[in-house]
Structure formats: structure tokens, C-alpha cells
Amino acid sequence: MKIQELILQPEGRRLEFKQELPTTADLCKTIVAFANDAGGELFIGIRDVPREILGIPEDELFKLEERVSNLIHEHCYPVVVPDISFHGEDDARFIRVKIFRGSNFPYYIKSKGKLNGTFIRVGSSNRQADAEIIAELERQKRNISFDSELVHDLPVSKLQTEPFYALFKEKTGEELTEVTLRKLGLMKEYHGAWYPCNAFLLFSEYAVRKEYFPYSKIECARFKGTVSDVFIDQKTIDEHIAVQAELAYDFVLRHINKGAIVKGVYTESRWEYPVIAIREAIRNAVVHRDYSLTGKDIKVAIYDDMIEITSPGKLMPSIDFNEMESRQSDIRNKVIAPVFKKIGVIDQWGNGLKLISDELKAYPEIDFKWFENGLSFQIQFIKKDYTPQPDYNADELLKEIGTKLGLSWDQVGTMPALSRHQVGTKPASGWHQVIQLIEKAIEPCGIQELMDLLNWKDRTKFRTKYINPLLEEDILQMTIQDKPRSSKQQYFLTEKGRVFLKMMVHE
Description:
Elements: H1 3-6, E1 15-18, H2 24-36, E2 40-44, E3 46-47, E4 52-53, H3 61-75, E5 76-77, E6 83-89, E7 92-99, E8 108-109, H4 113-117, E9 119-122, E10 125-128, H5 131-142, H6 162-172, H7 178-183, E11 187-190, E12 193-196, H8 198-202, H9 206-212, E13 218-223, E14 231-237, H10 241-254, E15 258-263, E16 266-271, H11 275-288, E17 298-302, E18 306-312, H12 336-342, H13 352-360, E19 366-373, E20 376-383, H14 394-405, H15 431-440, H16 447-454, H17 459-472, E21 476-478, E22 491-493, H18 495-506
């Protein structure tokens, strides 16, 4: 990116603007934070808000360059070598201080020492690192990952791993023997004994994980409206991590709509959100989350207007969501990730972001956003043209639909006598049949399928009794709007229909 384009960008993880040389403390916090993270650029002579190049007098440029270089050398440890350059026009010159990601972690301010002087970049600010973060930086220096560290006080025999062993056999066709466990790095030898690593605990059952990793779970919620005040449904997924992503994905599918679009003579089902992208995002959250952070779990939140996925841990330094097409790959969990690839949770290294990007192209109505919120990474799939749904009153809606269908409130759950238009022993048109019909229409289906479901033979009467009233009340919708009697016609549940179904099932 060119300098003129760069200075139009907002401050963030890799970018900071200062009108003038900051205090020594502030300067050094920024420098060590950049070095401990993804690197970054500090511009001096540019005001952030409002963004404006104020410049530095020509005769002060070299003095300022020398002062910045000396301050970094004197106050930052280990050694940080900045790349300092001048830019701009003669009447508006500014300085760029570029810091590269280090390798001798952690970097800190000498006078404060490692425990108090280590800083990391969180969004556009510098944050003092706690003991957990310092430990992670030291692991990065040794090129090891948290999930590969041994648990010395827990024998392998204490782990409950039968479900994981069964899943591994199902997905790979291989038995998970001790030899395989060692090859995968799930257990290692130490002073003549074999111990599990953190990853092995995460693949075990809840009893052990609850003790060592109580937050290795996914909290899923479907909220009413666009805020997190009222739950419609919630689920805690605390099974071993190999199955968490699919269970969370299933929760999402239960709470989003699947409609239909017509392409030529064909009717195709289509989810309201790019589900392949969402599935990939949930998988990434499980595979790449920072399990060393205590008190944080993955969260999958579904609102009326968006789906939000939050994963503990900052984005890996080499990953840039602005370049989703470029097949990027950076692994935080060096034991977990290969296991996930072997069992098929990961398809191909570096392919995840491109999968998300490719499917988003087919959903121009969905806006994709990502954020680094503190020590968590969050992505959102947002409906651009969201219109708030009416807040239906359960009693009123049931009475309204019941009137259209010729059913009264006190018929809920009853089994009326048989109709002469039906065959066999199926009950006549009661609320239970309405539930059957609209449950079937969660996915598009033709009128014959619906008639077969309820054992009706007379198409005209069936259409009059069920289809037309449900269409009029916006419970069902046609896939081919302009040709109601098309032989390819199918019916599917609307958003109002889903609300109605939940009311009926609840009642």
C-alpha cells in the first residue's frame, strides 16, 4: 500500500499516528507492542483526529530521527531496530517509524522489567501483558505451542477418550493406538514416562477438561431481536473439541431460514446466510482459538439481523482478513490443527478464508465484518437490508390462524373425527396436522408431498383447507410467485411461519 493510501487508514493493530513526538513512555510502549505482535508503523507529524498532515519543520527532521532511534535503543529490550524514513512534501514532511515483528520475545521497556514492561497491541491501543500473555510470547520464542505442552500431573490412563477414539476410527479408518498418539504429538515422553499434552486433554471427555480447561466450550444463543436481552434458545456445547464445530453449526442451521429461488425451470433451496462460510468460521474458531486464555469461551450468537462468532485469542500476526483470496495459513495450535486435518475438519491448509470469500460473492445481501475486540477475534455476517419483524402476540396469532383454518383455540392437541376426504387412520384437520404440514415446509416441498403427509386425496379441498389460508396469512410462501399453479410450484415456511411453528410446538 502506498503512503498516501496508508495514512487514510484508521489506527489499528499495525498503525498509529502522532501529531508530534510522544513521551518516552508512550513511544516505547508502542514500539515494544508492535515488536511483540505483527509489527507496525508509527507516523509522526500526522494528527489522527481529524486526520491531517501537520508536518515537521525541515530543520528538525534529522534531530527527531536521531532522538527516536536513541530512545528505542536505550529503553527497549531486547534490541529493536527501527526503519525510519521521511515522507511528504517540503512544506509538510513527516516521519515513518516502521517496526518489524520480532523473534526474541518478549520485548519490554527496560526500566519496568519483563513483568511490568511488556506490552502488546490490542486494536489501536497498547496493553500491558499479563503473565499468560508473557508465557505465550516465550513459547513463540521457543517455537512451541500451548497445546503441545505436557501435563505432568495427569497420567494418560486418567483420560476418558473413548468418543474421540471412535470418531477417529470413523473418519480415518485407523485405530488410535499409542504409536499413533505419539506420532500425532498427543502424548510425549518425559524422563522415561509418557504424559498427555494439553491437546490430548481437549480431545478427552468433560470430566478432565472441566478441571483443566473449563472454558473449552462453545456457548450458542439465539436472541430475540437485534440485542442480547432475551433468549429464544441457548445451548452449551462442552463435548470434546473434535465435534464442537459441527454441533455449533447444527445449532445455527436450526435457527436460520431456508427459502427457495427459481432459476429457469428449476427451484433451488437457499439458506438466508452463506452457511459454508459460517461453517468454516466456526471451524476456524475451534481450531485456532487461544486455549491458554482462561475465562474465555467461543460464542456463537444469532440475532434477527446477523450471526456473530467470537473466538478467544487475537488474529495470528501473518493473517490479514483484507486479503482473503490469498490462501493464508498460520497455525496457533500445532498439535490440534494436524489432528483436525486428519479427521477432515480442515480440508486444506490455507483454504479457509478463500472458502469464506468465495461463498460471500453469492450473497451480496450479506455484509461481512471482522474485529479484534480485546483479546478476542470476532466476525459478523450481517443482513444489509434487514427489516425488523413484527412482535407477534402468541394468543392473537394462534386465534388469527385458527380462524382462517376453521380451528378454535381449544382444539390445540385434540384428535377430531376422521374426514371423508382422508384415507386410513390419520386424524382429521386439527392443530397437530397444521404442525406436521408447516414442519414439512421448513424446506421447500410440493403440494403432493404435503397431501401425502396428511393422507389427503382431494387436491382442491386440500388447497382450500390448508394452502390458501396459510399463504394468505404469510405462513407459507410460493417458490414461483408469478405462476401459482405451476407444476414446479413448491411451498416453504416464512419467517412468520417459523415464529408460528415455535409457538405451536411450545404450546
